[in-house]
Design brief:
Helix content is 45%, strand content 19%. It is built from eleven helices and ten strands.
Length: 285
Amino acid sequence: MQEGFRNQRLTVVPRRVVAEASSRPVTRRLMVTDTGYYPNAADHLMKRLGGIEETILILCTAGTGWANIGGTQHRVGANTALVIPHGVPHAYGASADNPWTIWWCHLRGADLTELIEEIGAGASRPVIPIGRLDRAIALLDEIVTILERDHSPASLMGAAGSAWKLLTQIVVDRTMPVPGDPLQRAMAYLAERLDRTVRVADLAALVGVSPSHLSALFRRATGGGVLAHHTALRMAQARNLLDTTDATVAKIAREVGYPDPFYFSRHFKRMHEASPTEYRNRAKG
């Protein structure tokens, strides 16, 4: 490995400290053991034929690199993350003509397997796109800054919290729509039409996909279908109006697309286990 990249940052938690933290609450579930920042890392090269105990996450912010994971070659470009599971043989490095700039960390802990599965990465798919690069950089910068200060139990816990946020944010950013794509346009359309019903077929035609594909996009992003998402938006607006105005239930029902206030009340109670009036009178905060 080429050492001493200009303006690099690097910190490695001593293995004695790692061993102690592995038995403590929180850090036994997730812990950062090594982390750093390598800008314009020309000639960067790492080979580990037997893998390592930790899972490696490398965020490429500029330039390009490559990775050989379990014998398969992969290109790593800007706005992507390379995830190498623990124990997997690997090699990676910067490209010769356009060296990468990377933020990276090594992770271990009881919760890590589930988190990596949710990201959708693995030995057969180690390179994943990053939806919000700025957020990911900020969180890795936070991890590096914390562990540059010291390796106390409090700092290890703080770095673990930032790492948890980083991993879950990658999951969220990958499932939520990007501006201009069919899912984002469909969600925006629904959010602007809380006072009426919308047919799935009409919405799908509007955003240029089939009804079945649109439904699949919504299920992946929200856990439910198109109409379930629209109903959730309408009910959220109903709750907001109940909390912040003295409008009658009938008027609120019309505002969120229910001409029949009795049907609205039944639907509201089915979702919230309280009628609109009971909800309004409930102590909150």
